Amino acid sequence: MQAGFIGLGMLGSAIARRMIEQGVALRVWNRTRAKAEALGAPVAASPAALLSETPIVFLCLRDSDAVASVLHGPAGLLHGAGGGRLIVDLTTNHFSPVVGFHAAARERGAAYLEAPVLGSVVPASQGALTILVSGGEAAGETARPYLERIARRIFFLGEEGLATRMKLVNNLVLGTFMATLAEALVYGEAIGLERERVLEILAAGAGESAVLRAKTRKLIEGDFAPHFSAGLIYKDLHILQDLARALRKPLLTGSATKEIFARVLEQGREADDLSVVYEILRGAPVTPAAGSPGAAPGRSPRPDAS
Ligand SMILES: NC(=O)c1ccc[n+]([C@@H]2O[C@H](COP(=O)([O-])OP(=O)(O)OC[C@H]3O[C@@H](n4cnc5c(N)ncnc54)[C@H](OP(=O)(O)O)[C@@H]3O)[C@@H](O)[C@H]2O)c1
Predict the structure, then answer these.
(1) How far apart, in whole angstroms, are the C-alpha atoms of residue 178 and residue 169?
(2) pLDDT digits (tens, 9 = 90+) for 120-143
(3) Bridging pattern class, strands 117-118 and 129-134
(4) In this structure, which of 5, 136, 190, 291 has its CB flanked by the most CB atoms within 10 Å?
(5) Which residues' Cβ are closer than 6 Å to ligand 1?
(6) The model's pTM
(7) Where are the alpha helices (DSSP H) in the chain?
């Protein structure tokens, strides 16, 4: 199996590594070339070159502006398109331009699938993501064997734009729940319990969830090195507000949560993991809980945060 991969950020590099481990011969491209070289796979000269060299190319980019620039920019992907080429876009897009990406690929004789991802860096490295897919059925079947190497569950939703809208609905849960867990932790400590104890009780009660399981260690150790950054959830909550406007529906918990994350960004913590919202709501630095690995002598409270 051969494929191209564009966008070697936090999620993209975890997915690309998993594909290589699973025997996919990857050629890659990234705007910042050093990240592409770090993967150890052949690096293409441009997105267009990549699509002319490989019949299927995956994208995992920050947002729809990034996707538009990789598709349409100088030496962009669509300049190399044609002949039944397939672009599989794992990016969390805005629901509006994503429909145009399908059309633009079609005009060039290529196919485009939107395939946003549920799950983060750790599930990606284990091939345990969930992927939502919208686009043509034949393209979905071509992509399936690749997607099965990185995901445990794949939902084919058909209609263009639907996978993206559902991904945003999922991130309404992720953002609001992360903020709620953070606030609950602040309250648990305020009533006199140790952080680990509060988390243990929440995990046995209403907090039991994939989000809490994924973030417990980070909250205990105060390790906010990014898996999914605060800046990205802020982006998604903004897109949700556009969705609310398009649907003419109120967005109540989502809007409040967007403002909570605005506070995170205001404090310069955009690049940290979204779980840093706990430190912001707490109003004081989080030091590793006593006895946790992060509490070892000489270890900084935020070991790999840059
Ligand atoms: N991280 C997660 O756990 C997670 C989970 C689910 C979904 N997602 C979604 O997956 C996507 C990628 O997330 P991530 O965490 O990997 O983000 P990230 O670490 O910020 O990486 C973003 C990638 O986009 C590239 N990029 C940004 N602007 C660009 C532009 N104008 N032109 C070309 N390339 C551009 C970056 O290139 P440079 O290296 O040059 O900056 C980098 O490769 C996002 O849409 C995010 O919402 C992430």
Answers:
(1) 14
(2) 999 999 999 999 999 999 999 999
(3) antiparallel
(4) 5
(5) 7-12, 30-32, 35, 60-63, 65-66, 69-70, 91-92, 117, 120-121, 227-228, 232
(6) 0.94
(7) 10-21, 33-39, 47-53, 64-72, 97-107, 121-125, 137-147, 162-190, 195-204, 210-221, 230-247, 252-266, 277-282
